[in-house]
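Appendix B, Record 12. Input sequence as logged:
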Amino acid sequence: MKKTILLSAVLVLIAAVSAKAAEAKETYDTVCAKCHGAEGKGDTKMGAKLGVKDFTDAKVQAEIKDDAAVKAIKDGVKDAEGKTKMKAYVTGADAPLSDDEVKALLTYVRGLKK
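Logged structural output:
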């Protein structure tokens, strides 16, 4: 009986993790891919214009710290002149993301590394 309960709990956990991963991919495809590209290479017209980084590059991934990435998603990114390069995606009415969604999105981006 204990094994059945444990197995059920594990299956529920796996389903929840899979659902979050699917939601994170959907968020990335909807919100981020316009600039960062479907595969995270930054190979879009807007990505080239903004100089976005290639998330598939292990060196780039190593340089990106989680807290800085979360801050960029939540607060947006501005250039040296104060011009918005990336808008915030937490407090904005058009694309509010919860803390859990931001964490799931960051996990998805980390998975783009080749």
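Confidence is low (pLDDT under 50) at residues 6-18.
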